[in-house]
Amino acid sequence: MATITYVDAAAHPRKVTATTGSVMSIAVQEGLPGIVGECGGQLACASCHVYLDPAWADRIGPPASELEDEMLDGAVCERTANSRPSCQIPVGDAVDGLIVHTAATQV
Fold first, then answer.
1. Residue 106: what pLDDT?
2. Could you give the CA distance from residue 21 to residue 19 in angstroms, rounded to a whole number?
3. What average pLDDT does range 62-68 have in this prediction?
4. What is the biggest distance separating any 2 CA atoms in the chain, rounded to whole angstroms?
């Protein structure tokens, strides 16, 4: 089980506890703003783009794959060193306490 904090563009945090899925699928299930997930987690878009909290940037591994990099290059919102597609971050004990920030717009 993992508790994930989603911080929206207005800096409002929302904590969600989950046992399975991805950071993207949980956000979509919960109706959280800032994560669209248009492709359903198939890594075919960048509508689940999140910014990892700096404390987590080196703890989410492995580093972004080449395909993840390509998708993020096409993102509408600004890309940073901490950008990741949230569909590629599986929920589990390793991400308990994870904090992600969402952009003001995804599509």
1. 65
2. 7
3. 85
4. 32
Higher pLDDT among residues 77 and 54, named by residue = 54
Topology (CATH) of 2-102: Ubiquitin-like (UB roll) (3.10.20)
CA–CA distance, 105 with 56 (Å, rounded to integer) = 22
What average pLDDT does range 28-44 have in this prediction?
91
Q: Where are the domains of the chain?
A: 2-102
> Considering the entire predicted model, what is its pTM?
0.91
**Other CB atoms closer than 10 Å to residue 79's CB: what's the count?**
15
pLDDT at 75: 81
Residue 41 contacts residue 22 (beta carbons within 8 Å)? yes
86: phi then psi, degrees, rounded to nearest 5: -70, -15
The answer to whether the beta carbons of residues 17 and 7 sit under 8 Å apart is no
DSSP 71: H
